[in-house]
Amino acid sequence: MNFAEIFRIAVSALLTNRLRSALTTLGIVIGVGAVIGLVSLGRGVEEFVAKEFDAIGSNSLIITSQRPSSATRTRVDPLTMKEADDLKNPLIAPHIRDVAPQFAFFALVTGESGSRNITANGVVPQMLTVRNWNLARGDFISQADLDDNARVVVLGADMVEILFGDETIDPIGATIRINERVFTVIGVMEFVEGFGGQNDTVLIPITTAQTRMVENARARDGSYRVSSIYIQVTAEEATDQAKAEISAYMDEAHSILFDGEQDYRINDQSELRDFVLTLTVLLTLFLSMIAGISLLVGGIGIMNIMLVSVTERTREIGLRKAVGARGSDILLQFLIESLLLSLIGGALGIVVGWLAALLGTALIDDITLTLSTDAILLATIVSTIVGIFFGAYPASRAARMKPIDALRFE
Amino acid sequence: MLKLFKKGKEPEILRDELGRRAVIDIRQITKMYQMGDVEVHALRGVDLQIYEGEFVSIMGPSGSGKSTLMYILGALDQPTNGAYYLDGVDVSKLDEKQLAIIRNKKIGFVFQSFNLLKRTTALRQVELPLMYGGVSGRTKKAKAALEAVGLGKRLDHLPSELSGGQQQRVAIARAIVNEPAMILADEPTGNLDSRSGTEVMQIFQTMNREKGITTVFVTHDPWIARHTNRVIMLRDGVVVADRKVATPLVAGETERPSEAEELEGVFQEVYYGGKEEEYN
Ligand SMILES: Nc1ncnc2c1ncn2[C@@H]1O[C@H](COP(=O)(O)OP(=O)(O)OP(=O)(O)O)[C@@H](O)[C@H]1O
Ligand SMILES: [Mg+2]
Q: For chain A, how many structural domains are there in total?
């Protein structure tokens, strides 16, 4: 008795009950389709998140203020322009390529046809390169603008529509008011991917922000305060060294004696990135587990139909045994049947999942759902296991039937 | 090929007065069915030897244990007690796998209800035992078997496209295709009209005469039984008569007599065991 023959018997048995086979398969199609679709969705989100972080630049660090964790110190010294300047010094921090301080303040921004409360930012020209930003039109803030405390403004990508009512308008040369002070628009940012709200902000020279927009922006030592300092590291691998250099400098500048007294923190984009990516991986896992439940239900469907089929075909089993079929022949026949059901279901499920991914890509902006080979592999392996696992019991029941009992069955 | 049939402490194979070997040799076979608390004794100690080339019919009233005996002879069921030597092999000592081989190679079983597979062509039905036996040249052998039963032109017909008699002939072709040591048939003509029944009898007779295949079959029909060489009567699970037929009829050559004539002069010795109605 060869395998090909038993295979042929199994196929013709399935073809005999086409509708039933198709319906049984449907359970697996839905299960595998859901797994594939949701895994692709998870992958898509992962890729999206990774891309967003790459846009920010993984070789960048951000220094911000924080409340010290240790009770031995409660004072928070603000970050200052002087510190930003010092960190630029290669003697102090050789692994830092560029430094860009930022001064944030709340502002009511008013344009020709709209206004909005936002967080505005005073920035330096280096901000463009440090944060990997690009201009859509016009110019960025220049050193001359800093020197003059110039009243010029670069708009975030979303601000054109907010202030002028139409995103296609060229606002260069137009004037807007920031906290009732008049500024001339000199540039518009390209849309920035990411979560930082960089698109609904306005950027003005940091000196203008420190001198004209707030009451007193000076720290105790007379240097101007800043809200955060963006650091570009010489290379991604140098991140740890750069961090150490910054810590050493900042600890001294802020008279930090013990660990835990730090009133500043250095945010590493890659840490956040890893964290968020872990979250999305967990999300993917969770989603596929839910999809896995429908696969389980599909498997139980197969088992149910196989049990019905074994009972229905009791006389056939008896006859086969009467003409010389062994238990193992019968076992194999029914196992192949259930395996075929689940494998065909799996194959169709992959197609369905793939179509769902295509649909998702078309429907969800920014996210591309990709059909990964490991998802296909997983679906194939899982449907094989489902077929064998849920087919095993009905098949062994068929195999163990005594020929005489099977033949007498009415 | 059948290395599992090595002779061990088996008894001498019996031979009859003509020197023929006993294909079937059963000793004190009993079969008891447990139905809840009730024990049904279907066979109560049957001794029987059937020799190669014999053409035997088994008769007896309904419930006398004919089918039970046939299933045991066909290795489809196991006796509760007693020994069964098939071609000298103790069947009770075989495991599942060996029983499957016995059923495949040594026995061709024909059922009253044909037991053909649905939606399967005649050719495929007949190939079935060859397939499970791992025999090569299946199509050729299956065709030959179907031709032998006169269905050479019905190879691709499904059971639903065949008459009852033709279906039973497909079943017979399936039983003989592996050239078994014997054919066992449980009321093979029971579901057939008398013309189809005669056709089927002709086939059995021809197989037996020309190829010498040992044939045992159950029938309720004394006229059918007159075509065989030996008639065994069962009653309440025991053999109550075992007689040779004086002059077996040749199927198709003699007209079926009226019912009154039917039972006369059948046996070498006149036997009358049970109540007369039971045989009508
Ligand atoms: N599976 C079973 N369980 C319980 N009792 C059974 C079973 N099979 C047969 N019997 C009983 O065993 C006895 C013999 O049955 P068997 O089928 O051998 O009779 P039979 O001679 O073939 O009858 P018929 O001429 O009606 O076919 C009967 O009393 C029957 O009820
Ligand atoms: Mg019977």
A: 2
Ligand 1: which atom is nearest the Cα of residue B34? 4
Q: Which two tokens stand for residue A154?
A: 């670069």
Question: A33 near A383, Cβ under 8 Å?
Answer: no
Structure tokens at B132: 């499970």
Same domain as A98, residue A184: yes
When divided into structural domains, chain B yields a total of: 1
Whether residue A74 lies inside any domain: the answer is yes
Alpha carbon distances (Å) from A280 to A50, A265, A324, B97: 10, 25, 57, 55
Residues A155 and A93 in one domain: yes
Per-residue tokens: A194: 């990411």
How close A403 gets to chain B, by Cα (Å)? 6
Q: Is residue A59 part of a domain?
A: no
Of A210, A173, A209, A207, nearest in space to A188 by CA: A173
Q: Which of B30, B33, B72, B76 to mutate to test the pocket of ligand 1 (most atoms within 8 A of CB)?
A: B33
Q: Domain containing A156: what range?
A: 67-262
- In tens digits, what is the pLDDT along chain A, a chain of 410 residues? 578 888 988 998 899 889 989 999 998 999 889 888 888 888 888 888 877 776 666 678 899 999 888 888 888 899 999 999 999 999 999 999 999 999 999 999 999 988 999 999 999 999 988 888 889 999 999 999 999 999 999 999 999 999 999 888 999 999 999 999 999 999 999 987 765 667 889 999 999 999 989 888 888 888 899 999 999 998 877 888 999 999 999 999 998 888 888 899 998 776 677 788 888 888 888 888 888 888 888 889 899 999 999 999 999 999 999 999 999 999 999 999 999 999 999 999 999 988 988 888 888 877 788 777 877 888 889 889 989 999 999 999 999 999 998 988 87
> Which atom number of ligand 1 is nearest to the Cα of residue B60?
21
